[in-house]
Amino acid sequence: MQSQFTITEYLNSVKGAISSNTLDVVLSVNPSAVTSSFIPKLQIFLQPLSDKDIMKQIENTHFFNNDWISFENLVQRYLIFVRDFNPWSLLESIDLLISFYESLGIALNNPQFSSMLLTLVVKSTKLLIPLSQLVDEKLMIMNNRTNDYPRLSYLSTLLLKVLNNLRNDQELNTPANKYKISVLMYISISLCNTYVKIGSPMLCNNVFSNINILSLNKNLISRKQLVQYRFVLGRFNMQQSHFYTAYIHFNWCFANCHYNTSPQMIATICKYLIPCGLVVGQILYQWRPVPFYRSC
Fold it and tell me: What domain of life is recorded for the organism (predicted)?
């Protein structure tokens, strides 16, 4: 069995992933994924190398003819993560993950090639938000603090940068960019939920403003994401005591849940819809789920 996986072999695999549009595999920061089994072998090879040594190897590979510098920085940040990653300590590794995600957000500022990174953005976001929250909560217990989320707060600034880079595509609101719109909505919803978690719900208004400016074609957004987005809109308005506006959003979410909607999501909507309806004098009628649509 091969004990090492050289940096040259890895960079060649990145070249192959560019051709096959599978960068989410070779740049995955999830060490438990089956496709990341190369990480321990690559780590052995990388440990004697400095940051400059790694970058020199990357530059000599000539990704995109060296025209996408932020991608080269992303690959370097990934290899630094692999080199310094401690599989036995999340606390020692979480900042490496956040640094990688920061480089990923910067690399999105290239509309010509950024579509290659969209799946990686979603997978990395799904992994990093709960891990950052876990580390912050564990440290709060250890240090006897409350409502202190330094990593999650910093991650929220990175999520906002990702959102801004995604929405800067002038041809975003077209059927050809339907997947990018899906990623944009996912990041927007995740960012709003993160703002609520760190105790800064008013910052959600920045997200709503950014989305409203785009005037996205709702036919390009899945029903599931529309329900999730209008739910966070309703929650924001309810917190601002705009109960009737909140009720409209919650009621729309409830009426547009399809048959495959999880009971947990329906219960969450009702948790806000029922008291909000009581405040504005509206009665919740029997739920009649809409048929399942392909876009749900």
Answer: Eukaryota
188: exposed, middle or buried (Cβ count in 10 Å: 0-12, 13-18, 19+): buried
pLDDT tens-digit profile of 93-152? 999 999 999 999 999 998 888 899 999 999 999 999 999 999 999 999 998 888 889 999
Would you call 290 helix, strand, or coil by DSSP?
A: strand
Q: Are 6 and 45 in contact (CB under 8 A)?
A: yes
- Structure tokens that stand for 240 in this block: 């601002």
Q: Are 266 and 273 in contact (CB under 8 A)?
A: no
CA contacts within 13 A on the Cβ side of 46: 28
Structure-derived torsion over alpha carbons of residues 244, 250, 255, 256, reported in degrees to the nearest 10: 130
d(CA 97, CA 130): 12
Structure tokens, 29? 């920061």
Q: What is the distance between the alpha carbons of residues 248 and 36, in angstroms, rounded to a whole number? A: 45
Tokens for 288, please give them: 């009649």
Cβ pair 162, 194 in contact under 8 A: no
Strand partners, 258: 290
Tell me which residue of 210, 147, 270, 33 sits closest to 139, measured CA to CA.
147
The single residue listed with the structure tokens 């996205």 is 216
Residues forming a β-bridge with 238: none
Question: What pTM was estimated for this model as a whole?
Answer: 0.91
